[in-house]
Amino acid sequence: AIYPTVALQASRAGIAFSDAAPLGNLAASLAIRFDEAGRVFLADEDVSTAIRTPEMSQGASTVSAHPPVRQALLGLQRKLAARGRCVVEGRDIGTVVLPWAPLKIFLTASPEVRAQRRYDELVAKGQTVDLAATLQEILIRDERDSNRATAPLRQADDAVLLDTSRLGEAAVVDRMEALARARFGADLP
Fold first, then answer.
1. Residue 15 and residue 23 in contact, taking contact as beta carbons nearer than 8 Å
2. How far apart are CA 67 and CA 63, in angstroms?
3. Are 131 and 154 in contact (CB under 8 A)?
4. Which strands, in side-by-side order, build the sheet including 40-42?
């Protein structure tokens, strides 16, 4: 949620997603926090819904490719994780942000399945979307994120691969919980 929040604030401030230096300065100045319910706050504003749009998702992919932005947010990401037990998701968490994490799960699914899931999510929120366009956006984002020079999307060598293409949400959660229980045993609540 951190990178879409940067994209949202950049959009509001009129900073182009391609303008690395001003984006890095903006990212360094943001007060981003999360509450126990999983809501995302920019200063005191709940931006949880505003950052979950296709535009902010694409914006996140673009702004996250800039080294000044990544550098500005790396400390924040590590600080959030240092609070204690947590689940952190992102395209470079296991390779760059938290390479020492005791359990890394690399979730994947086919682009077509991910597009359908995203399409269904947006339709459920009342948005008008096109499935073919959603798939194209996912393919473009994957290509950009996998080939960026800084912190590209890739599976960490010690991450467990979990292909969710044929699994429902409950089955994915069950498999992740089983992996966590196998790794941490009685230390899980």
1. yes
2. 9
3. no
4. 32-34, 40-42, 45-46
Label residues 172-188 b or e (16+ Cβ within 10 Å = b).
eeebbeeebeeeeeeee
CA distance 117 to 86: 25
Contacts (Cβ under 8 Å, ≥6 apart) of 113:
164, 165
pLDDT tens for the chain, 189 residues: list them.
899 999 999 999 999 999 999 999 999 999 998 888 889 999 999 999 999 888 898 899 899 889 999 999 998 889 888 887 888 888 889 999 999 999 999 999 999 999 999 999 889 988 889 999 999 999 998 998 899 888 888 999 999 999 999 999 999 999 999 999 999 886 666
pTM of the model: 0.77
Q: Which two tokens stand for residue 3?
A: 């990178």
Q: What string of DSSP letters covers 15-80?
A: --TT-HHHHHHHHHH--EEE-TT--EEETTEE-TTTTSSHHHHHHHHHHTTSHHHHHHHHHHHHHH
